[in-house]
Design goal:
heterodimer, A: alpha/beta, Rossmann fold, 2 domains, five-stranded parallel sheet, 15 strands, B: alpha/beta, Single alpha-helices involved in coiled-coils or other helix-helix interfaces, globular
Chain lengths: 663, 341
């Protein structure tokens, strides 16, 4: 071992972040300050779903969702409280915000100005990638064309006014969560970036010189799975492809601008509920994949918490993730070398293979008209659903090993999650009430006329084709709310429903287990007098539809007639659909933690409509205590991430239907 | 005697009384009754057949609302068009039903029915009733329950749409079920020639060239269609079906299309075709069902005693489905006496 003095100078580490925010601006602010005190070097703001989809906390669709997966921000005072005593000129803030990105950035800029910080001094990122919202994350609001316009306006505004801002973080992250293979992750995210750059290039105010700076400011947000060698090669391949696109498609020559800049959140899809402590190791290995190779090292890293599949992580869980990063960066010798894979023909060959396949897939998407077309014709969505179906099949069949899940399941119970250990964070149920009260107080103290006038200026800007940012920043200062700004845009642009891609998914070849369930579906259908019909949908604002889609496809494959009702449904709409469609069972998926309110509402309203005999099954991130409560409220079955065997779930759904129809 | 839901036997009389009470609620437009009636006509258990026939007989007493078929190649934008059509009719204060048919897997019987999502902007309206149907084993795209389902919905609602997937056999079949058939064409799809060859252009009463925002290509498609129709052998020789252009996505040309649908409906009434079309459709539905059940041999036995029209007339007023069962029984007894010889 070399002596401490003789060690080489270390590289500067990547930025350490933790995706966080919950309950209220005040609670999140104190969390941020404590995280920064522990050595976190940047902030990553999680907004709640109403904020992400443009509703104020007191909107009907916000019920149960306020403060659940992030912080509610309805107006400038919320934003100011969120960053209280955090000087924005020194902070680097990443905001996971898409459909309403222009608005939240406006609130951020207005807050900075209140703090006395000029926009030009701000550093950070707005995610602002709407295409992956259509494909996976589901917090889109407006149709593709309007969304592309909004994105391009943020880009062309910030490139001059907030030059250190990353206006768009092209996300391949969510594609992998939706099942993408590395090749699909590379190809689809590149197609996505191209679709926005093509729009920006056409804007009259964008010169060649501006385009170079725009290209240099587009950043990426990647995923890193457990196959960490391949993941590292994926990052290297993306480096090369991005540079190639810059040179060939956009004529960029400046080396510095051609470099792929990306942040990473490592994989959540592979985190397990069974033996959850294993996730600590998974997370560390995944982090290695995006830090080992200097040439393809991430600029910033967010690690999930080991208990994410169980519920909301506590501050201690997030601290463990931060410590993991600090150990990698400060204890190991990772940052003392140049790229340790340069010259490795194995790595080079794998990189080349990924690059070539990705280039071919990218060209396929571009040939059909680019990413927007491939959204509208559901090509990309369908490919993702297929890959995801394939992955689940492989886990069910044991071809893909997941330790503790389909292999080595025997073990002693984890003391980390034993009864009474309080292993997850409970959001204070009073948070929603308090947020609504504070919103009402804000509305009554602001100057309504001023807010109305400011909103009218935004309306005129949109209709005249002017950039939306300047008037939105003024509207933020005038006290316009998130819901008001978004409603204006909804009225002008309309709302969009993205194609689901589930309908055209080919039926998989049946295993013996699947055939057995098919036989049972046929039998029960004969008893019922018509084919077993199931409604699958997602109540609330959570748009992560991957799970619901997989359930829908599987239900079809075992012979059920499936009404796929999609996302963003109120309990009342679900009950109405169930009645109109004459279904025998309802399957709800909900990942945002708002299951308590929303699922109970569905069950109650079914009873009120005289449909109490239709059983309800629920899947989601649902802690044991909550599952018990739901079952007491009348839910027939509760499934959590540990229930990976969809065929078995289908078998149980047949039982449930059969039981509820027994004389 | 079939058991009721609690498992105790019920008399035929009380079951029939219940069915008639349900029919009254359907006609009154009660939402839960429409849903329940649709479930009942889909019930294929022999013990429940009489319940379903009584219900359909009672519903057959009314003329019901206007039935419209919407057809066209996949990707032509049928669902998007339907979504804006429904909203447009709602703006005119009409109640609307949609029967959306999606294909079933021939292998598993399973089906993914996605229309409730595709019609999201209209499906949540309290004046709109949407039921998704799987095509089941019908290769032509319409399952046997489509007709009775339409009978239920049209007795409760002002307008009922049937949306069918793809082109081919289903056009002729859906024609038997509806008053007005709307064909949605995609500009420059290159399938116009194919449609002409397949004789599909003979059936529609209205053409809508979608995606008119594509400009010249759409105009050319409309021109080609107009020329194609003149060559064709129209269902109604006295009327050239209008070819409209518009864009479902941008809401262009929708009001004109709704006007054209309402005009066609008025035309059917004044020309006396409304009644003849429905009567013709009734004969065709009955004939087709019998053909499927008993084959050509069985049909020959039936027709030996007179034309289908005449025999249906002899049965008196009853639902299509009861007529199918009645004539089926006659075929069975004729075939039975054959066997006895």
């Amino acid at each position: 071992m070399s002596s401490i003095d003789s060690r080489p100078e270390r590289d500067r580490p990547w930025m350490f972040r933790t995706y966080s925010g919950h309950s209220s601006a005040k609670a999140s602010n104190s969390l941020y300050r404590s995280n920064l005190a522990k050595g976190q070097t940047g902030l990553s703001v999680a907004f709640d779903l109403p904020t992400q989809t443009g509703y104020d906390s007191d909107h009907a669709l916000a019920r149960g969702e306020v403060g659940k997966v992030g912080v509610p921000v309805c107006h400038i005072d919320d934003m100011q409280v969120l960053f209280d005593e955090i000087p924005l000129d020194k902070m680097n803030t990443s905001m996971t915000i898409n459909a309403t990105a222009a608005w939240l950035l406006s609130l951020y800029i207005a807050t900075a100005e209140r703090q006395g910080t000029a926009p030009a001094a701000l550093r950070g990122t707005t995610q602002n990638d709407i295409i992956k919202e259509y494909l996976s994350r589901g917090t889109f609001v407006f149709p593709p064309e309007a969304s592309m316009r909004l994105t391009s306006e943020i880009v062309s505004y910030t490139v001059d006014q907030v030059p250190n801002w990353n206006p768009m973080n092209v996300c391949s992250y969510h594609l992998q969560e939706a099942g993408a293979t590395p090749v699909q992750e590379i190809a689809f995210s590149m197609a996505n970036a191209i679709s926005i750059l093509d729009v920006v290039r056409e804007r009259p105010e964008v010169s060649d010189e501006t385009l170079t700076r725009v290209f240099g400011r587009i950043s990426f947000f990647l995923n890193a799975g457990i196959r960490f060698v391949e993941e590292m090669c994926k990052c290297r391949a993306m480096n090369q492809l991005w540079e190639e696109i810059g040179r060939e498609r956009y004529g960029i020559t400046e080396e510095k601008m051609l470099r792929l800049r990306y942040g990473v959140q490592v994989n959540s899809l592979g985190l397990t509920e069974a033996q959850p402590e294993n996730n600590i190791i998974r997370i560390a290995l995944e982090a290695l994949g995006v830090t080992l190779s200097k040439r393809a090292r991430t600029r910033s890293l967010q690690l999930p918490a080991w208990n994410e599949a169980l519920g909301l992580p506590r501050p201690w869980d997030q601290q463990l993730s931060l410590r993991t990063q600090q150990i990698m960066a400060y204890e190991t010798d990772l940052l003392e070398y140049g790229d340790i894979f340069d010259g490795s023909h194995v790595v080079e060959a794998k990189t080349k293979e990924l690059l070539e396949e990705a280039r071919a897939e990218l060209n396929r998407v571009l040939d059909m008209g680019g990413a927007v077309t491939a959204i509208e014709n559901a090509y990309m969505k369908q490919k993702l659903v297929e890959s995801h179906t394939d992955r689940i099949r492989a886990i069910e069949a044991g071809e893909l090993t997941v330790v503790g899940v389909n292999a080595y399941e025997e073990g002693v119970d984890s003391p980390l999650v034993e009864e009474g250990s309080g292993s997850i964070l409970k959001v204070d149920e009073s948070a929603e009430r308090e947020q609504i009260a504070s919103l009402e107080a804000f509305r009554s103290r602001r100057n309504d006329d001023e807010a109305k006038r400011a909103l009218k200026v935004v309306e005129d800007a949109i209709k005249n084709g002017d950039n939306i940012m300047p008037s939105s920043i003024e509207a933020a200062k005038a006290g316009v709310t998130t819901g008001e700004w978004s409603q204006l845009l909804r009225d002008i642009f309309g709302e969009y429903r993205a194609p689901t891609g589930v309908v055209a998914t080919p039926t998989a070849t049946a295993s013996d287990e699947v055939s057995a369930v098919r036989g049972r579906v046929d039998g029960v259908s004969d008893q019922l007098g018509r084919r077993l019909k199931i409604l699958v949908g997602k109540p609330g604002l959570d748009g992560h539809s991957n799970g619901a889609e997989q359930i829908a496809v599987k239900a079809r494959d075992v012979g059920m007639e499936v009404v796929y009702d999609g996302i963003r449904l109120t309990p009342q709409e679900i009950v109405q659909s169930a009645q109109d469609e004459g279904v025998h069972v309802i399957g709800l998926s909900i990942l945002s933690g708002s299951h308590g309110v929303l699922v109970t509402d569905v069950v109650d309203q079914l009873r009120a409509a005289g449909l109490g005999n239709i059983p309800v099954v629920v899947g989601g991130i649902i802690p044991d205590d909550d599952a018990r409560k739901l079952e007491e409220a009348g839910v027939s079955r509760v499934y959590t991430p540990k229930d990976f065997d969809l065929t078995r779930i289908m078998d149980e759904i047949v039982d449930v239907v059969s039981e509820s129809n027994a004389a | 005697m079939p058991p009721d839901s609690a498992g105790s036997p019920v008399s035929t009389e009380s079951m029939q009384a219940d069915a008639r009470a349900l029919a009254a609620k359907v006609i009154a437009g009660e939402r839960s009754a429409i849903a329940q009636a649709l479930n009942q006509v889909d019930d294929n258990r022999p013990a429940y057949r009489e319940r379903s026939l009584t219900l359909l007989d009672a519903l057959a007493e009314t003329d019901g609302g206007i039935r419209i078929g919407v057809t066209g190649a996949p990707g032509a934008g049928k669902s998007t068009l339907l979504d804006v059509l429904v909203s447009g009719l709602r703006a005119r204060d009409r109640s609307v039903g949609v029967l959306a048919v999606d294909p079933s897997s021939q292998r598993t019987g399973g089906a993914l029915l996605g229309d409730r999502m595709r019609l999201s902007s209209s499906a949540r309206d309290s004046g709109v009733f949407l039921r998704s149907l799987a095509a089941r084993d019908a290769l032509g795209g319409l399952s046997e329950v489509t007709g009775p389902s339409l009978d239920v919905m049209s007795s409760a609602l002002d307008f009922v749409f049937v949306e069918t997937v793809g082109v081919g056999q289903s056009e002729a079949q859906v024609t038997d079920l509806v008053d007005t058939l709307v064909f949605v064409a995609q500009p420059a799809a290159g399938d116009l020639i194919q449609f002409m060859k397949a004789g599909i252009l003979e059936w529609p009463d209205l053409f809508f060239v979608n995606k008119a925002d594509l400009g010249a290509i759409a105009t050319r498609s409309a021109t080609e269609l107009r020329a194609g129709i003149d060559l064709g052998n129209n269902r109604d020789p006295n009327r050239t079906p209008p070819v409209l252009c518009g864009s479902a996505r941008d809401g262009v040309g929708i009001e004109e299309l709704i006007d054209a649908i309402e005009e066609h409906s008025a035309y059917l009434t004044t020309s006396g075709q409304a009644a003849t079309r429905r009567a013709g459709g009734r004969v065709a539905r009955i004939g087709q069902a019998l053909q499927t059940r008993y084959g050509r041999f069985g049909m020959e036995r039936l027709l030996a005693t007179g034309s289908l029209e005449q025999q249906i007339k002899n049965l008196g007023k009853m639902s299509v489905d009861r007529a199918i069962d009645e004539l089926g029984r006659q075929i069975e007894s004729a075939l039975g006496s054959d066997n006895g010889r």
